[in-house]
Amino acid sequence: RILILDFGSQYTQLIARRVRESHVYCELHPYDVGEQFIRDFAPKGIILSGGPASVCENATPRAPDIVFQLGVPVLGICYGMQTMAAQLGGAVENARVREFGYAEVRARGHSTLLKDIQDRVTAEGHGILDVWMSHGDKVIRLPPGFKVIASNAASPIAGMADETRRFYGLQFHPEVTHTLQGKAIIDRFVHTICGCGTDWNMPDYVEEAVGRIRSEVGKDEVILGLSGGVDSSVAAALIHRAIGEQLTCIFVDTGLLRLNEAQQVMDTFARHLGVKVTLVDASERFMQALAGVTDPEQKRKIIGREFVHVFQEQAAKLKNARWLAQGTIYPDVIESAGAKTKKAHTIKSHHNVGGLPETLHLKLLEPLRELFKDEVRELGLALGLAPEIVFRHPFPGPGLGVRILGEVKREYADMLRQADAIFIEELKASGWYEKTSQAFAVFLPVKSVGVMGDGRTYEYVVALRAVETRDFMTARWAELPHSLLAKISNRIINEVRGVNRVVYDISGKPPATIEWE
Ligand code: XMP
User: Fold this and answer.
1) Which GO terms describe its molecular function (predicted)?
2) 395: CA distance to ligand 1 center in Å?
3) Is the minimum distance from the CB of 396 to ligand 1 under 6 angstroms?
4) Phi-psi domain of 487 (left: phi exceeds 0; alpha: psi -120 through 50; beta: other)
């Protein structure tokens, strides 16, 4: 397995994903995890990520010395290369001109890392790579034992290698897709240079994870809050595969779910997979708690609080439960570790379940902690979950509560559910569901005048929102075809009583957010 030491680059997670895509297990840890940790990890290779710091300043982050003493291959990327150069006796200079964006570099010599990897060959027979650069500093003098393996006009030392010690540095970013041969370079490092096999694959992982859960949990009972989302669904299927009847899932119908959602969850998990699921209809309780409340933040707080109460009541009935299972995934773990304090870590796990573990005195079981979202999906499929569940758009915790603007009422939720179902059905039928990252309807409690048949109507408005995004931090509104929008609008107005107008949201994030509240 490969250890990635994180110096804070925005691309560090991508390095981990690329390594996993090469079917090699890897973990990402802060650069200062400590020598003992690195020793115990026993990596077959180490990758030093990029980062925002400059080697030329005082007291900049350095790779622990052990990295260069273990005798395993090391690949430094961008800042990782610069600190490697500085620490091993080379020199780094603060370049006056930043090099940012696409660049061409020429592969030089016969390095194991880049040999025969190229996008094209010049008339003189030099291999050329199209790469992505993003750096201010550059290496100006090689450390002893190193040779140049890539260069261009802006960075005469765009790549370096000490083949004896198997230390490599790249000024450009092989982990981003803009570097066309990036995957080949990562493959070369982890397989050829580090000698890792291709043993990271889902069917094996399922067996391994099942074994781990069994030995961790023993004969104890486990509870899991099922939300119908991808992560908790996959966690439930995996834990059930491992310990069967010892798992009880709790599914809370808040009254703020999508059309037939509770039914679908029961069909999939209880009927099809044979998982024990307790369905709690708490919709009346949620509606009462939300009556008269219009402020979005207050609504969120009330929904979170009620959820915890309902969950606790159910959990208290399971006297033998010792574990609380959660669908925490690797990006959540990395994010919390990013703060680099144990404290931040705990705060995040608590935050994820709204304080559940504290009050329930249960141990945490998080079987997806080391998986990326696409791996969670792959795992779900390997466990036999339907693609409709595994590739479902995300749905916020507070559900329709933040998609009914202002006061939440059951009658509004019912209208919204129908409109939303029509929207999603038509997106799926036209192939647009897969092309968008998230799509949903929003209920606007304002009335406008319309005409239907010969009569005047005075009814509510539904807004449609569909966005494309990779990380949900920024998003573009989806350019759905007008003919599709027309069809959806017609259906909603004809089929949903109480709605006579449909609008399409054409705001990006930022400045708007994806949800309306
Ligand atoms: P915004 O509206 O902030 O949403 O652009 C970004 C993504 O987060 C989801 N979201 C939530 N998810 N609990 C959740 O589990 C929440 O309270 C919550 N609020 C927003 C939203 O659906 C989108 O995918």
Assistant:
1) ATP binding; GMP synthase activity
2) 7
3) yes
4) alpha
Query: Of 498, 504, 484, 295, which is closest to residue 411 (Cα–Cα)?
Result: 498
Q: Which of 26, 135, 175, 426 does the annotation list as catalytic?
A: 175
Q: Which residue has the tokens 């690949």?
A: 75
The DSSP output letter for 190 is I
ipTM exceeding 0.90? yes
Q: Is 430 left (phi over 0), alpha (psi -120 to 50) or beta?
A: alpha
How many residues does the structure list for the chain? 517
**What three-state secondary structure class fits 500?**
strand
231 annotated to a ligand binding site: yes
230 marked ligand binding residue: yes
Structure tokens at 458: 């005075």
Give the model confidence (pLDDT) of 173-219 as tens digits. 999 988 999 999 999 999 999 999 998 888 889 999 999 999 999 99
Name the region of 43 (left: φ>0; alpha: ψ -120 to 50; beta: rest): beta
Work out the average pLDDT over 311-319: 92
Q: Does ligand 1 lie within 6 Å of residue 397's CB atom?
A: yes
pLDDT digits (tens, 9 = 90+) for 462-505: 999 999 998 788 899 999 999 999 999 999 999 999 999 999 99
Cβ contact 490:464 at 8 Å: no
- Strand segments (E) across 329-480: 363-365, 438-452, 455-468, 476-477
For 100-139, the pLDDT digits (tens) are 889 999 999 889 999 999 999 999 888 999 999 988 899 9
Q: Cα angle vertex 138, ends 134, 142, to 5°?
A: 140
Q: CA-to-CA distance for 87 and 98, rounded, in angstroms?
A: 22
Domains and CATH numbers, the chain: 2-193 (3.40.50.880), 202-390 (3.40.50.620), 409-504 (3.30.300.10)
Does the annotation mark 35 as catalytic? no
Q: Assign residue 35 a region: left if phi > 0, alpha if psi is -120 to 50, beta otherwise? A: alpha
Residue with tokens 């439960």: 321
CB 60 within 8 A of CB 83: yes
Q: In which element (H, E) is residue 100 found?
A: strand 91-107
301 CB less than 6 Å from ligand 1?
A: no
Cα 133 from Cα 154, distance rounded (Å): 11
Q: Which residues pair with 105 in a beta bridge?
A: 129
474 lines ligand 1 (CB under 6 A): no
Round to whole Å and give the CA distance between 227 and 249. 10
**Residues ≥6 apart with Cβ < 8 Å to 443:** 400, 403, 404, 405, 412, 413, 415, 416, 419, 460, 462
